[in-house]
Write a structure and sequence with these properties.
The chain is an alpha+beta fold. The protein contains eleven helices and 19 strands. It folds into three domains: 131 residues, 3-Layer(aba) Sandwich (Rossmann fold), CATH 3.40.50; 68 residues, Dna Ligase, domain 1 (2-Layer Sandwich), CATH 3.30.1490.20; 130 residues, 2-Layer Sandwich (D-amino Acid Aminotransferase, Chain A, domain 1). The termini are far apart.
Amino acid sequence: MKKQIGVIFGSRSCEREVSIISAVQMMRHANPEKYDVIPVYIDEKGQWYTGNALKDIRSYEPFQPDSNGIIKVFPDLTSGSGALLTVKKGSGLIAKDRIEIVARIDVYVIVMHGMNGEDGTLQGLFELANIPYTSTGVSGSAIGMDKIMMKQFFRGANLPTLPGEWFTRKEFEQDSKSVIAKVGKNLGYPVFVKPANLGSSIGVSCATDEEELQDSLELAFEYDRRVLVEKGLIKPIELNCSVVGYDGDLEASPIEMPIQHDEFLDFRDKYLAGGGSKGMASLNRLLPAPIEEELKNEIQELSKTIFRLMDCKGVVRIDYMFDRESEKIYITEINTIPGSLAFYLWENAGMKYEKLIDRMIECAELSHADKNRSNYAYTSDILKNVSFGTKGSKGTKGTKLG
């Protein structure tokens, strides 16, 4: 029997369109002999939809929820149900609306980028619903989405990161001069300014002096109330590595070197310059990167270490900056759900996209089975001995709470 695979994407995020591209790519490569692929699209208002029409990229130009082949749904959160439900309107004077099951999902493939999907919120929903899902879990996803927490995590693990400072919107609005002065004193220039909870380089910019820093901070605070300012390197080499697996069974991909024309790759470089319908797979790159074997091994081992420390599963991509002058490698960030699911890195290693999808689903099921092996049935006699000291409860003795 074929597995019912729910590919969930979209959501209330600045990266919604990138998610759509990655999801449509993925659905085209899933093995139809193994899986019934069920698209689950969350629109910008947070409404859920399914239907085969959602496998076509043209359905989003623009999205019309009342189109043929599109059904509005909502998930049944009963543990292990996996059902997608819809409300059927009754007809006639006394007819009542009724709830019907549209599909039952065996495994969710999460193809979200950014907030409300990649950040642990959707993962938490599936944990509550006790349904297998392909991405990193709640804590790893949350840390991986928040650049400030991520940087503190890496520092705490004694991993190589660039110096940085972070600020809140309130701090900046109350005293922007102090913020700018602190950056100049502690970091110098150039610096990179990044919203804490966005990906795809949205809202990210480089500042080389105080005036540019003022503009960069204003831009970043449009997207988030917390902003990271990170020390910049002079013409660094960007290097990316993917890891796939679960628990101790891990494999690191070949290293890619995106071809840069500016100081960094912005949203347009990543998703528009080479053909928007192909996402990250269209980016100009050298693959494998022309680097020394020693550096390649260092990056691959470091990537697997990060994967284990953050208890990741499925496929992730970790981005690095190599400083030519010091010959040191620095972690830029982890993408717990990378653009295009990093399939192009694995194809270079001989793993076809179809097989990568199989591996992600296998990891989801292994993780789910491990979770269900844990004991959640511990009981005690505490309730038998509880007393709230309620007036009129004669002769009640036992443990008082509060």
